Amino acid sequence: MVQADRIDGRPCERIDALARHDKWYLGGLDGVVWAPPFPKWLHRPGFWDPAHLLQHEVGPAFSVAILDRGGTEVALRGGPAALAGGGFAEARLRDWSWRPGHLIARWSTGLPAAGGVHRVEEDRRIRPGGILESCWRLPRALAGGQLVGFTAQPADAVSLLHRTERGVSWMRTVSDRSGMSMTVRMELRGPSAPARCQVIRSEGRAVPEWAHSPFAEVPALPDALASPAAAGDGHTGWIWIAVAFHIGAEGRVALQLQLQPQLGEPVGRPCPRPDADWASFFAGFPTFACGDPQLDRYFDYRVYGLGLNRIEGRWGNVRHPAIAEGPEYFHVPITYSAQCHMMEMRWRAGGREAWGSLLNFVDNQKPDGSFHGRLYPDHLEGTDFYHANWGDALLAVDDMHPSPVALVRCYEGLARYARWLDTARDPEQSGMFTVVNHFETGQEYMSRYMAVDDEADVAGWRPRLRLKGIDISVYAHQLFRALAVLAGRLGRTGDEAEWRALGDRCATAITERMWCPETRLFTDVDGRTLRRTGVKAAVGFYPMLAGLADGRRLDAMLDHLEDPSTFGTPFPLPSSSVDDPRFSAEGIWRGKRRNCPWNGRVWPMTTSHVIEGLLREWRRGNRRAGGLAADMLARFVRMMFTDGDPGRPNCFEHYNPCTGRACHFRGIDDYQHSWVLDLLARGFAGLHVDARVVELRPLPHGQPHVSMGPVTARGRALYVALDEERATLTVDGERYSGPRGEPLIVAWDDVAPTETPP
Fold first, then answer.
1. Alpha carbons 257 and 242: distance in angstroms, whole number
2. In the chain, where the domains are located
3. Confidence category of residue 483, pLDDT binned at 50, 70, 90
4. Is pLDDT of 269 > 70?
């Protein structure tokens, strides 16, 4: 068995263990990501498919050609296979090796070599600072030739094109989905002064084929840089840019395209340097092992997913490091998923991204106290609004990584938010809180909204509903409860009484008005009549988060989780009950497959909530809830492997509750809209940390050996080791042990204080 204070988990080995041949997503841990959902040009060198700089798509990026001494292109053979139709779930790439942080593609050149042909190798990475890098290892036979980086940019979006010391730079205007534009400085460059640069305007298509570029026919001048507006003929077309570098005997050349948004920052404002590369990012998380290959692999795969979507706090309105919801247009901080990121990122040493996930929204808080639903670096227009469980998330972060300064800022921001919520969404003082459209819960296309408005699904973001939502009422209760706790910690006794009164009123309303005896589940309430809707949805389990279900009600809720006719599907948990008249495992709503349907699909977000609720009921003493939590968590994680293959973990938006099939048609993998790492750490390893104690109480999951560590919490290093009989917790080298079936609790006051360095 692994000792409780000695776990070997070197970051590079953890990264290498995730290697596979069917993936290509790359991120620089700072807000720039290359994760095209249906790429067309993976089989060509470089990054022709677009990258994303937060929510802005930037493409084409660039491709690469190899020229021999006479200037003729060296054809590349073999290499990664083109994927028919841009699909990626059913095909694998040849000569392609991916792991978090970089991917390697290999080709043969056709040039004769002893024993065969010469091979070339390309290493693609995204480096911090918005740098897309294509680094080449070339055979000596190509020495004296040139490696050329080339791109095509839309002529009507380019300005200020000029030569730089290492390549060519220009300004590019890009627009997001809402039509808001941003200027990006782009530079295509190499390791030193280029052998030559060329710029040519062209009509026609822009494809990453050197033979189709204008450079293949136009004579290679020593230096030819035309102005983007030189033609003056009004046509748009493309501006083709090429930068060539000599290939030396050592055969190593790196080409880069850097993306730098022009956000109008004050002159002289320091630009924070990203504090993470992939190895140090992984090193900040504990190693987890329980002997189940899928659970073990998924723990580190989630670390990768969080890193892919990490945003450094240097992008205009996004001032603190945080996690984006996902790739593509989801690559910005979003309130609905920020609660998940706070739960996950508290397991990284220091907790910077966990705090930042809330601080960004507090910094940009609206005058009325509400939060923007999304934060864009360059504007705050059309940001929408989403509800979130801020209270639980803030307590979880402060328990593990206390920061007095950050806590005061978050407390004051959430106090304003809570007063807005109470005034704007419960003016009747009912203790229940109003949903005004089916998007703001993050859960659209459900019967729960149609119960109060038969046009709820076609009204868009217009505030026409009056639905007292069980989910946001639980969120409100947890927020009031958290503010009361934090007011006590901060010595604000007057505030504490206010929050406790609001929390009590909310708890009374949920237990007395929102429990539906007929459905044996909590449901929404019609805000016009104050009658329960009786619609069974997964959010009806959320009161478990707050401990608001007594023994009889809790048993009824657990019955539902085991009943295949309601919520007991093979893959947990359908967002709407199986017996809902609008239920569809395939996501069909009004005869159309929807992008984001909640009428039966498994959404990891909701499943995380329900397993979290079961875990809390287990810690309150309910053994049945603990068994269900362990079983559901294992089935939940196993669902997120393509074809059940332990080597192909994924995280899509939603899944079929009967087959476990992901929404591959959306193409959005590595979507961080849930918490999983946190549930494995607290459920299977059993580690719980709060401001008073550290506790070891694993779920009854049946894995004989579990180890985890080091976990950094409250400045201490924690290690966990479980075997069949014993549970061992090590805190800064001091070991505590007890029977595995009983809670092991260590008060922080009983742990020897850490030594203060001289």
1. 12
2. 23-261, 693-750
3. very high
4. no
**Which residues have C-beta within 8 Å of that of residue 334, sequence separation ≥ 6?**
324, 325, 373, 374, 375, 386
Tokens (6 digits) for 458: 């076609």
Q: Which helix (H) or strand (E) holds 65?
A: strand 63-67
* Beta-ladder partners of 171: 159, 185
In single-letter form, the type of residue at position 320 comes to: H
What tokens were used for 749? 């006051």
Going by pLDDT thresholds of 50, 70 and 90, the confidence category of residue 750 is confident
Assess whether pLDDT exceeds 80 at residue 626: yes
Confidence of residue 756 (pLDDT cuts 50, 70, 90): very low
* DSSP letter string, 109-126: EEEEETTEEEEEEEEEEE
Question: Could you identify the residue written with the tokens 């809402």?
Answer: 178
What pLDDT does residue 464 have?
A: 83
Phi and psi at residue 498, to the nearest 5° = -60, -45
List, for residues 134-159, the tens digit of each pLDDT value.
999 999 999 999 999 999 999 999 99
Report yes or no on whether pTM surpasses 0.85.
yes
Strands 96-99, 102-113: pairing kind: antiparallel
When mean pLDDT is compared across 214-228, 309-323, 659-673, the lowest value belongs to 214-228
- Residue type at 204? G
- Cβ–Cβ < 8 Å for 390, 412: no
Angle between helices 390-400 and 352-363 (to 10 degrees): 140
3-state helix, strand, coil in the chain (%, to 5): 30, 25, 45
What 3-state class would DSSP assign to 683?
A: helix
Mean pLDDT of the chain: 92
- Secondary structure (3-state) at 691: coil
Q: What is residue 289's predicted lDDT score, i.e. its pLDDT?
A: 97
CA-based torsion, 653, 656, 662, 665: positive or negative: negative
Q: Which of 697, 705, 677, 702 has the alpha carbon at shortest distance from 739?
A: 697
Rounded to 5 degrees, what are φ and ψ at 22?
-125, 25
Q: How many residues does the chain have?
A: 758
CA distances from 477 to 266, 419, 471 (A): 41, 13, 10
Q: Among residues 382, 340, 385, 376, which one has the least CA distance to residue 358?
A: 340
Q: Compute the half-sphere exposure of residue 208: CA atoms within 13 Å on the CB side of its CA.
A: 22
Q: Where are the alpha helices (DSSP H) in 661-743?
A: 677-679
* Torsion sign, CA atoms 105, 110, 112, 115: positive
Cα–Cα distances in angstroms (integers) from residue 692 to residues 161, 374, 688, 717, 743, in the given order:
60, 34, 11, 16, 15
Placement of tokens 């419960």 in the chain: 426
Residue 321 DSSP label: -
- Residue 136 has phi, psi (to 5 degrees) of -115, 140
| 3-state secondary structure string across 512-557 | HHCEECCCCEECCEECCCCCECCCCEHHHHCHHHHCCCCHHHHHHH
Please write the tens of the pLDDT for every residue from 214-238.
Answer: 999 877 655 556 555 444 455 579 9
Rounded Cα distance between 101 and 78, Å, is 24
C-alpha span between 658 and 655 (Å, rounded):
9
Integer Cα distance of 625 and 486 in angstroms: 29
Q: What is the pLDDT of residue 462?
A: 74
DSSP letters for 615-636? HHHHHTT-HHHHHHHHHHHHHH
CATH architecture observed for domain 23-261: Distorted Sandwich (2.70)
Helices (H) and strands (E) in the chain, counts: 15, 34
* Beta pairing partners, 117: 112
